[in-house]
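Good morning C.,

I know you're traveling, so I'll keep this short. The sequence:
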Amino acid sequence: MYKGIKEAGVILDYIGILKEFKRAFEIYSEEEIKGALSGIDSLREDFNMLLDGLLALFSEIPEDSYDRQTMLRAIEVLTTEEENSKRFLEDYRELRKIFELLGPAEIKVERFFEYKWISGIYTFYMNTVLQNQLEHEMYAQKYFERTLKYVHRTTELENLRKDLPVISFDENYLRELEEKNRSKEEKAASIVFTLNRLVLVEKHKNPVYESLTDKVERILKLWKEKTKDFERIYAEGMEVFKKIEKLSQRQKELGFSDMEYSLLLNLEKDFGEDGEITGDVRKLSERLRDHIFNNWAVQQTARKTVEREVRSFVRRYVKRHGSIKIGY
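The tokens, ready to paste straight into the viewer:
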């Protein structure tokens, strides 16, 4: 299996050799060989079971509707409970594989519209919640030609993709958020999923995101409540984005690297903003500049020098403030 995409194929048995396989497998228990060799009837059963289970997740949502409001309701179901999201992704991807393996089976015609609707929810989910996985998803599509040909190229899914608000996180983010999202629910959802991707998934890449983790986790908690206050979620999310802009601008003005700024933000979290702290971080950075280079940590002399300077820096702060906690 490659990246969870291609794990099975179809064998056309013209001379009855599969009977010999079945005799060979008789020495094993059913549980031991489950999934090793499946007939078309077994695939039909699995297809029905998976599709019924996925439809049950959205039992309170009208089927065969592809408008953004309906899709957003489906996304709420998936993101309010983490287990729902995990189950949906696993089961849909398995369902998609079986759809390919079934070939021209009648069951695909009988349940085509249900499968298409679930595929629409998957498309909307990937484009709104899991945008960071879209590149892998585009690669995966070439293994699912039938789904792509008969499902994703239908009018409903083509229109759904065209109607998705494409918003990139840059200096125009807040303006585009207002212009491209129609309702308060859509605006709140867009903010929640963008913050989740930027701050909680990519926080290790950016000290600004890392410093706002607690605020974003609180917003996600609000989103997971059954009775959502969309206006509050939107307002608090806007405040976080404004804070990101302000902190990012400050980093540029100070000329600090990510490591320097991470240290500064952690110190300020404990002791408050203080010009003296900024100066101390700058001085420490200057003392370390000649000793921090590519692979410096594996060179004993450089590592000991850096450790000595950092210990000295920490001792001064402990003496001045009593205790210190640096989490970068």
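Safe travels,
E.
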